Amino acid sequence: MLSSGPDIDSIQASLLRALASAHRLRIVHRLGIAPCEVNELARDLGLSQAAASQHLAAMRAVGLVEAVRDGRSVRYQLTDEETLVACSLMRGALVRRLSQLGDLAAAARLPADLAPPPGRGTHP
C-alpha cells in the first residue's frame, strides 16, 4: 500500500540531495572534527561567510546540522555523528573504485618498448 505522506525513501532522498555538494561534504568532514562558528567554518574551508551560512541553512533544513547558542555565539555541529560515518564510508568506496580504475588504466598502458617514438602519434 502506498502512503500519502512522506516515506523514509523520500526523506532520505531529500537528505542526500542536501549532501550533493562538495562544499557541504567538506562541511560535514570539518564539523566531524569539532563544532564551530560560521566564521571559523568559512575561514577553514575558504568560503565567504555568506556562502557558509547558506550551506548551513540548507543542511539545517533537512536536519544534518544544528545550531547551538552559547551566549552571543552560535556554533554548528552535526546533528548525528553517524552522518560523518556514512560520508566516510562512501568516500572510502569511491577511493577504492578510483584505485581499481587507476589499476586498469595502468595495465592498459603500452610498455615503453611498444610506445610510438617521441613526436609521432599513434596514427600513420
Description:
- This protein has one domain: Arc Repressor Mutant, subunit A.
- It has five helices and two strands.
- Helix 2 packs across helix 5 and helix 3 packs across helix 4.
- It has 124 residues and is mainly alpha-helical.
- The protein is elongated, with a radius of gyration of 22 Å.
- The longest helix has 27 residues.
- Strand 1 and strand 2 form a beta hairpin.
Number of domains: 1
Distance between the termini: 64 Å
| CA-atom Rg in angstroms | 22 Å
CATH architecture: Orthogonal Bundle
Q: What is the fold named in CATH at topology level?
A: Arc Repressor Mutant, subunit A
Total helical elements? 5
What is the number of strand segments?
A: 2
Percent helix: 55-70%
CATH superfamily name? Winged helix-like DNA-binding domain superfamily/Winged helix DNA-binding domain
Unreliable stretches (pLDDT < 50, length at least 5) are none
Largest sheet: 2 strands, antiparallel
Could you write a compact summary of the structure shown?
With 124 residues, the chain is mainly α. It has one domain: Winged helix-like DNA-binding domain superfamily/Winged helix DNA-binding domain (Arc Repressor Mutant, subunit A, Orthogonal Bundle).
List the topology elements.
Blueprint: H1 8-18, H2 22-33, H3 38-45, H4 49-61, E1 65-70, E2 73-78, H5 82-108
Antiparallel strand pairs: 1-2
Helix pairs in contact: 2-5, 3-4
